[in-house]
Amino acid sequence: MSQLEELLAGWIPRQRWFAGKGTPIEKVMVEAEHPVVTGEPGLRLLVVEVGQRGSTSRYQVLLGVRRAGDLRDELAHAAIGVCELPGDSTTWAVYDAAHDPELTTSLLEGIADERTDRGLRFRRLPGGAIRTGQRSLVLTGEQSNTSLVYGEDYVLKTFRRLWPGRNPDLELTTALAGSPFVARPHGWIETDLPARRPGDGGTVPTTLALLQDYLRSATDGWVLAATSVRDLYDTTGLPPGDAGGDFAGEAERLGSATAAVHRALARELPTDVLTPDMLGELAGAMRLRLDSATAEIPELARYAPALRSAYDAFAAVAEPLPVQRIHGDYHLGQVVRTDAGWVLLDFEGEPAVPVCDRRRPASPLRDVAGMLRSFDYAAHYQLIGSASEEALAPAARAWARHNRDAFCAGYASAGGVDPEKHQAVLRAFEYDKAVYEVIYEARNRPSWLRIPLDSIAELTR
Fold first, then answer.
1. Taking the domains of the chain in order of start, what are their residue ranges?
2. Over the stretch 356-376, which tens digit does the pLDDT of each residue have?
3. What is the CATH number of domain 219-460?
4. Where in this chain does the record put each Aminoglycoside phosphotransferase domain (predicted)?
5. Would you say the pTM of this structure is higher than 0.85?
């Protein structure tokens, strides 16, 4: 490995967006390097290949380059290290340039000018000029990607883990352009990456970043729901609808917004139906996930018969199941409340899944199930480690039921598939999501494992 690759091998595993934590790194290779800003300071967009246990993943790194000793104090936290770069005997300080507004202005300018240069393509959507000359600030809290906010106008999401192909976030957001329920897209950055599927050959256009409106007045849906739950806990004894900060009205409006987005996606993009045989295959995949989870987390075994029964009922659904493009990773953290109403964000789906798989049509009830699970999480996570957990648990369950019902009512009234009339399908998707959560929490947040386990216990009664 080069000096730079050795530095990256030590730096990448410490980043929140790195998906391979806990597995030794066998290889790091800079697969592609695209100069964005030449000279000093410089900005290079790197595509870095990381090998672990015989498999490889690609990541995007915005590499800042300054002479050693010239890295400003405010960039010290972004430092990767000091090294010589290939073909250059100068010693350079290299760092994560996402945190350097002096350099990231070039990304906004590139999209505004629709620049094409040295393997990078900056694309702008029609409909108005982009205001350049704004400094960027990295949004905190993200785990899978890195977003830069330019002034009060734009947010540029840079996708850290790269899969060949057009990112669903770009595809679906542009399909929904003009909808009041999504942040308006303005452009994107792309390059060509080798296809990964055996026999595909060649290269495919791959999304590196997406530019959208920045919703400066927005409040995260998870934050709003958590505030409502805290208000309920402060008024113990009152039903959720009578406690201060009742969330049901917002949950119903969120259900309506979700249905509107699903209807728009069905109009703009291809739809299909799943035959009973295809339903059987889906149910089989759910059973395999349950078997794997039960082997890893023995506490799940007591609920396995009820879960398998639900999957059997799903497989026995006689009528074809309509499928379409959906959000794919839907929960309260993927929606924000603005002055005008609810807005859905982050249509990329699960970043750990290849793009070709994320683009497959699915039942919109899978999104509904994801949001219902999120209500359960919002209701219970604040009780972890609380001395009042036993006393407040009934209130948490009541809050979740109250808002789940409101969301489903709003979804059905706005023209979505009525969850009440498709319980076998919804139940299977929700159970499958909960089993996934059991695996995730056992591996990453053991103290939270009781949330999906308790939810499964409640759902299977």
1. 3-96, 102-213, 219-460
2. 899 999 999 999 999 999 999
3. 3.90.1200.10
4. 251-372
5. yes
